[in-house]
Design goal:
The chain is of the alpha/beta class. The chain has ten helices and nine strands. The strands form two sheets. Strands 1-4-3-2-5-6 form a six-stranded parallel sheet, with helices on both faces. The longest helix is centred in the middle third of the chain and has 16 residues. The chain is globular, with a radius of gyration of 19 Å. Adenosine monophosphate binds next to α2 and β5. The site of adenosine monophosphate has 17 residues, from α2 and β5.
Length: about 290
């Protein structure tokens, strides 16, 4: 397994891999089973797999947890090696942003709701760094988790609009036994918060049951149901709860047999957790 820190070395290694299918999994490290599922899928589907580990300052707001983001490079590299990853790219901030960068990639519309509304500039930071990484790695296939469903939508739209020769592969959310979505940020939760955080997945899946029986019919009933449930946990502070059409992320009133995305962002102390649940009426992957 090659461990590469510079863009020049990455390009050299990539040049040697002509006629291979290149898989790419961009991450911010502190790997868990969610990341591992992406890496294993890439490994199954591609000849040469690149993992990047880079905590991207551009996608963090001024009061967010950039400086506190958990990190354990030695552990991450051991995990990557065990999976059989071919190259790990671990650039420093100076390597990715050697001087002030005046360019931002901005994807409109799909960034207007949910985390895009709550974290101004976040998706510009994501789209910009993914563009840079795609130029460096030149992947045929890139793997993203549906836990970050809006990120998948943004990158899919960007790749289409800008004619990147890369297929975006959305992958299911991997969860703890009690339903909490795996996240690098879960380590910040204390024991009580960790227990209360199970309400996210629990309330979202309960909505699906109630929509299917007709007990909940409007977007506002769905949002109210989830909001009340989450508020029953004293340490939870809601950032947003939304019910939108999928995949366009549009507001709806009365549910009319279209696919619905339920999405939440909730603070426990300073830790912000996100989760979502897709209610499919037309078939297709559920990614639960
Ligand atoms: P991050 O390191 O948080 O930027 O995540 C890197 C990639 O892993 C992104 O595509 C995430 O959507 C994906 N990911 C994070 N958590 C999970 C999870 N629980 N299940 C599946 N994919 C995940």
């Amino acid at each position: 397994m090659k461990i590469i820190k510079s863009v020049a070395d990455l390009r050299d290694e990539r040049m040697k891999q002509t006629h291979k299918t290149i898989g790419f999994v961009p991450t911010m490290g502190y790997l868990h089973e969610g990341h591992i599922s992406l890496l294993e899928k890439a490994k199954m589907e591609c000849d040469w797999v690149v993992l990047s580990i880079f905590v991207n300052p551009l996608q963090f707001g001024p009061n967010e947890d950039f400086t506190l983001y958990p990190c354990d490079e030695a552990r991450d590299l051991a995990i990557a090696k065990k999976i059989g990853i071919d190259l790990v790219f671990v650039p420093g901030v100076e390597e990715m942003y050697p001087e002030e960068s005046l360019t931002r990639v901005n994807v409109r519309q799909v960034t207007e709701r949910l985390c895009g509304a709550k974290r101004p500039g976040h998706f510009d930071g994501v789209a910009t760094v993914v563009t840079k990484l795609f130029h460096m790695v030149q992947p045929d296939r890139a793997y993203f988790g549906m836990k970050d469903v809006q990120q998948v939508a943004v990158i899919t739209q960007m790749v289409k609009d800008l004619h990147f020769p890369t297929t975006i592969v959305p992958c299911p959310t991997i969860r703890e036994a009690d339903g909490l979505a795996k996240s690098s940020r879960n380590v910040y939760l204390n024991q009580v918060e960790r227990v209360q955080a199970t309400i996210l997945h629990q309330s979202l899946t309960e909505v699906e049951q109630r929509v299917r029986t007709g007990a909940l019919q409007t977007a506002s009933e769905m949002v109210t149901y989830v909001t009340e449930k989450i508020k029953s946990q004293p340490l939870a502070h809601i950032d947003y709860v939304e019910a939108l059409t999928y995949p366009r992320f549009e507001t709806f009133h009365q549910w009319e047999q279209e696919d619905i995305l339920l999405a939440v962002a909730v603070f426990f102390g300073r830790t912000r957790l996100i989760d979502n649940h897709l209610i499919r009426f037309k078939g297709g992957e559920t990614y639960v």
